[in-house]
Input
Amino acid sequence: MKSQNQSILSIGSNQGNRLEIIQKCIQLIQLEIGTVFSVSKLYETPSWGFESDTFYNCAIAINTHKSPQKVLSGILKIEKQLGRIRSSQDGYQPRIIDIDIISFENEVLNTASLVIPHPQMQKRLFVLLPMKDLQLEFVHPLFQKSLQELIDSCEDKSSCKVVSNLDLPIGKYNLQQYNYIAIEGNIGAGKTTLAEKIAQDFNAKTVFERFADNPFLPKFYKDQNRYAFPLEMSFLADRYQQLSDDLAQFDLFKDFIVADYHIFKSLIFAKVTLQDDEFRLYKTLFDIIYKEMPKPDLYVYLYQNTDRLLHNIKRRGRSYEQEIPGDYLDKINKGYLDYINTQTNLNVLIIDVSEKDFVKNQSDYVFILDEIRKKMEE
Output
């Protein structure tokens, strides 16, 4: 999965309840555009380029899967939602809300509707000072200057006074309360995508399954009876080795770890794919290994219906997966649910994402975070 893009936005208001409007704006960006992972202090600054009431300004940093054009479209929608009416009149004007894209990764973009980095950012102290609060390693992609160098050379000497702190939207989730989260799901459910997204947004350590390196997997999908046992044994050995190695690098009492699998999935798949005598032998070996494995503080199971799984598998285009039958996915799902129902000492959260797309729709991702938060509050 492609990692999210990092973008810096500048937000200003000089009409109405400026603090309330800006805080609402940040919440809407979190819900509709991307995860707001850093927020500056709130600054009061004089109007720039025209005579008007003073502004409140801030900067935020977001992670997003959207393109710059999609981000622009989203912020224009939010501005309208908050009551801004854009005028065709030339020059600067008072406004209830103003959201500018300051940077987008290290991209340089110049179109009729969008210029990145923002062409006036280096001239505006009310943009640069809030950006400094974000504590990012920002270097201007055209000028090759650090943020401090831009501040030092800025000719704008207007007053920029800190007036308040601002709420960070992801602060309410406190996922780090769980030191170790395992995200599971059927083939094509999106577990790796979600694990990577949460890890990036909440600065977590990651453990990802090395499924693509298994030489038996393409053979298994062509001849299941012949290759089921070596496939499941190799998966078990690899998962045990990887989890042992990766988790040993971390402090399970201090680090925040997100994994896209739990070793029990080995038993679930083996029960579906192996003959009875093979499974008995397999389970004997598995039970020995399982006792040594750390258990996650939260086990999230992403449920998707079979039609949606088949659609996702086709869309991601791995050649060896294209012939997976729906009844095989049904059996895997039943295996997971049977396992979950027998676990009395595992903290389990089942989330139905059959009608969700948490990459395309930020609100679907926020829904998942809210489900995890509710589980934490139980």
